[in-house]
UniProtKB/TrEMBL annotation:
Organism: Saccoglossus kowalevskii
Domain of life: Eukaryota
Family: Belongs to the ninjurin family.
Record key words, sorted: Cell adhesion, Membrane, Transmembrane, Transmembrane helix
Pfam families linked: Ninjurin
Record membrane topology: Multi-pass membrane protein
Protein localization: Membrane
Taxonomy of the source species: Eukaryota, Metazoa, Hemichordata, Enteropneusta, Harrimaniidae
Transmembrane segments: 32-52, 58-82, 103-121
Chief location of this protein within or outside the cell: membrane
Name of the protein this chain belongs to: Ninjurin-2-like
Length: 155
């Protein structure tokens, strides 16, 4: 019996991962950036709600924009997660994956625009000057630095 010749058009298996592995890593890194923005928006929303509508001129506008941004960030995270579940190497699923990728990109663009607007309305806002129920007077940066220096010099 003669031995079968190896196929010449056969592609060797990839040694260092596939396109799917790259896309999963890319999506995870995007997700970490999204977590930072989500944390920042949640903290700013908390400060604005604690300050109340009397202390902030655009209270309802900012609460609406921050809430919308947080909701869209959750939607973008779900789209990015679903995108990782699609096999990009199969032709049948590639169109579905491209559609999810386009929607995720559009969602991130809208989130970016919303956060630019939020930044414009909160650029002169000092979270340290908000009076909460637990603090009888506004905290200032100078007072905090003075307290820290007193603690350091007493030891």
């Amino acid at each position: 019996m003669a031995e079968a010749e190896p196929k010449r058009n056969h592609r060797p298996p990839r040694k260092h991962g596939s396109v799917n592995a790259y896309l999963i890593k890319k999506t995870v890194s995007q997700g970490l950036l999204d977590v930072a923005l989500l944390t920042s928006n949640a903290a700013l929303l908390r400060v604005i709600i604690l300050a109340g509508s009397d202390a902030i001129h655009f209270y309802y506008f900012l609460v609406t924009l921050l809430s919308l941004s947080i909701i869209l960030q959750i939607v973008a995270a779900m789209l990015l997660f679903l995108r990782t579940r699609v096999d990009w190497e199969e032709d049948d699923e590639r169109d579905r994956a491209n559609c999810m990728n386009d929607w995720a990109t559009l969602t991130v663009l809208v989130i970016t625009i919303i956060n630019i607007i939020i930044g414009g309305f909160t650029s002169d806002f000092n979270p340290g000057s908000v009076v909460t129920k637990n603090s009888p007077e506004p905290a200032t940066n100078n007072k905090t630095v003075q307290q820290l220096l007193e603690l350091l010099s007493s030891k």
